[in-house]
Amino acid sequence: VERILPDGKKRSLGSKTGLFFAARPIEGDLPFILTEGTATALSVSEIAPAGYNVLGTFGAGNMPNVLQALRAKYPNTVFYTATDNDAAGEKAAASCESQGAKRIPFPSGEKDGADWNDLVIRYGAAGAQRMFEGALPKTNAGTTILRCDRLQYNPREHLVKGLITQNSLNVIFGISGCAKTFYCTDMALSIASGQT
């Protein structure tokens, strides 16, 4: 629990070390984006592409603690930081970079102290999304690496036993006059009449 005082200062009512708020359901094999606050995490969850875990770390000072705990649990996962545009955010991002996290740079020209939530309010979700995706470090787009224990085998259902499976591409080829048309017509009629 955190209390925000009239002057804007925040006071934690208990220990928050290593604690976080998940703005999306956590999937350990997806990269993590760490933000400082809850509102920022919710905004980043709205503007970040699919395929990322998004967490709020309850403050810049706690971000390295959250990263350390998650790194122990998910050692092969990529981590990013989307910190506020201030000295505390800079310090947290630098500390997390020393632990191997990648920084999502805040757009230049924005006011000091702003965060991604402020950009969503100022530019709308679509505008902030373009800025966020432009700042997100590029990866091997389209490449997905799965652990062997995550692979799934789905048995195929056959349309013609041993020859043609459902939801697949099949090619029948041969020289001219070898009865391809007859074969395909016979097979199509067999499938249509329920004979496999």
Structure explained in plain terms:
The chain is of the alpha/beta class and 196 residues long. The protein is built from 5 helices and 9 strands. The protein has helices spanning 38-47, 63-73, 87-98, 116-135, 180-192, and strands spanning 2-4, 10-12, 21-22, 32-35, 53-56, 79-82, 102-103, 158-160, 164-165. The protein has a 5-stranded mixed beta sheet with strand order 3-5-4-6-7, sandwiched between helices. Helix 1 (38-47) packs parallel to helix 4 (116-135). It is elongated, with a radius of gyration of 26 Å. It starts with a strand and ends with a helix.
Strand order of the largest sheet: 3-5-4-6-7
Structural class: alpha/beta
- Order of helical and strand elements: EEEEHEHEHEHEEH
How would you sum up the major sheet? Answer: 5 strands, mixed
The span between the termini is 64 Å
Low-confidence stretches: none
How many β-strand stretches? 9
**Rg over CA atoms:** 26 Å
Mean pLDDT: 86
Strand content: 5-15%
Shape call: elongated
Q: How many separate helices? A: 5
What share of the residues lie within helices? 25-40%
Question: What's the quick description here?
Answer:
The protein has five helices and nine strands, in the order ββββαβαβαβαββα. With 196 residues, it is of the alpha/beta class. Helix 1 (38-47) runs parallel beside helix 4 (116-135).
Element layout with pairings:
Blueprint: E1 2-4, E2 10-12, E3 21-22, E4 32-35, H1 38-47, E5 53-56, H2 63-73, E6 79-82, H3 87-98, E7 102-103, H4 116-135, E8 158-160, E9 164-165, H5 180-192
Parallel strand pairs: 4-5, 4-6, 6-7
Antiparallel strand pairs: 1-2, 3-5, 8-9
